[in-house]
Specification:
This protein has 426 residues and is an alpha/beta fold. It has two domains: 221 residues, Glycogen Phosphorylase B (Rossmann fold); 164 residues, Rossmann fold, CATH 3.40.50. It is built from 14 helices and 13 strands.
């Protein structure tokens, strides 16, 4: 297939006379939305046609990014209730039903219809949009998978996602990784593999041997972080680190905010933008700040009403604030460990205190602590323990220096737009 100018695919990066059509197929997974929309925004600014299939919750932001928006037939992504589940089997089943398998058949039909109408040069999908991957493959249209985190699939040298492990050392460490990787893949295959292969058969595609093989069928796996932040590993040939997208969510752009008055160090508290049953954790963080000679700025995000948090005089609680502005005034970030918040903090040269909740957050935490750029404490920690961690990081300059060093590499990759555009436009 050629692009609208008649130029064949793979003929090099876009120019003033080369306009391509990109179809995005995205699912709203909270913190993944700003970086994924950031990719669309950058392509639209280059003059490409960008069409987006997405959840209704993404409509305004997609339009603001320059995309033509279409809603999935089902309208919304199911809620991941990982905070309410306490077994690996329950987590795997919930992920499959709400994010991967449940939406996949209709998602495939929607994507096929969009491909047939739009005739895109490339489809770009969320990691969870398996139905869209199947649709693109069935229509012989190349697709890229957007990975707005550290690398999540099994790879030699990469600790299993969700374990919070540091890179393995020696034979026992290698055995640990083989066992956890095998167990993790078998667990998701138990719920996802048979329905995925049924869907592939419906679209006249050969079966895959495991769930993650579907992602490996992508033209590119675009890892939206810095290789300096991730751990080194033997990745597949189609995997590319293309730098983080540090865009703030659109819903923060006009949010009124101001830090408490004074000249004490400002501590920014930025927790999950989706509900992870974290109100009590946030309250303990605020209580910890109230016991310290600091100023606190807490952004609750859309999942929590600021009125649910009791704040002392030295802490301001707001629904939202542009984090790039708040971080420019801050000395420290306290967070749940979501990838977006962590890399933004590091790019701003700020150390972190992380109370990770689940998902990929323990992995982000170990990538910070193993480089000396912060401290992790359990999410259930009492206020005095949280206060002690905050005070230690603020008083110990080595944390700031490590954050500046690691953050410098992250910031350089974020600023280097060619890392992403050279891969997407090729």
């Amino acid at each position: 297939m050629s692009d609208p100018t008649g130029r064949p695919r793979g003929a090099g990066p876009a120019t003033e006379t080369t306009r391509r059509t990109y179809l995005f197929a995205l699912k709203d997974a909270g913190g993944t939305v700003p970086p994924e929309l950031g990719v669309a925004r950058r392509l639209a600014r280059r003059g490409h046609e960008v069409v987006m299939l997405g959840d209704n919750s993404m409509a305004d932001e997609a339009t603001g990014a320059g995309a033509t928006f279409r809603s999935w037939t089902d309208g919304e992504t199911g809620e991941i209730r990982d905070w309410a589940l306490h077994t690996p089997m329950g987590l795997a089943r919930d992920m499959f039903q709400n994010m991967i398998g449940g939406p996949a058949p209709q998602q495939a039909r929607d994507t096929v219809a969009a491909i047939d109408e739009v005739r895109p040069d490339l489809v770009l999908t969320s990691f969870f949009a398996f139905g869209a991957m199947v649709a693109a493959e069935s229509r012989a249209v190349p697709f890229d998978v957007l990975l707005p985190n550290t690398y999540p699939l099994p790879a030699k040298g990469m600790p299993q996602v969700g374990t919070g492990f540091a890179p393995a050392k020696g034979a026992l460490g290698a055995l640990r990784d083989r066992l956890t990787t095998f167990g993790g893949t078998r667990l998701i295959d138990r719920y996802a593999l048979a329905p995925l292969n049924e869907l592939r058969a419906e679209h006249r595609l050969a079966p895959v041997s495991n769930t993650w093989e579907q992602v490996h069928h992508a033209r590119r796996q675009l890892i939206l972080t810095s290789s300096a932040f991730d751990f080194p590993a033997e990745l597949p040939a189609n995997a590319r680190y293309v730098g983080p997208i540090l865009d703030d969510p659109a819903w923060t752009s006009n949010a009124p905010w101001a830090p408490p008055a004074g000249d004490q160090p400002l501590v920014l508290v930025a927790m999950s933008s989706t509900f992870q049953n974290h109100v009590q954790c946030m309250q303990r963080i605020v209580d910890a700040l109230g016991s310290l000679p600091v100023r606190g700025l807490v952004t609750t995000g859309p999942a929590i009403n600021p009125e649910e948090i009791r704040a002392p005089a030295n802490v301001t609680v707001v629904a939202a604030a542009p984090h790039h502005q708040a971080m420019a005034r801050s000395s420290l970030v306290v967070t749940h460990g979501g990838h977006g918040t962590v890399v933004k903090a590091l790019a701003a040269g700020l150390p972190l205190v992380i109370l990770h909740h689940g998902r990929d957050q323990s992995g982000n935490a170990i990538r910070v602590t193993s480089r000396g750029a912060g401290i992790a404490v359990p999410r259930g920690s009492a206020a005095p323990r949280i206060a002690k961690a905050i005070a230690k990081v603020l008083a110990t300059d080595s944390y700031r220096k490590a954050a500046v060093q690691l953050g410098g590499a992250i910031a350089r990759d974020a600023a280097n737009g060619s890392l992403l555009l050279d891969e997407v436009e090729c």
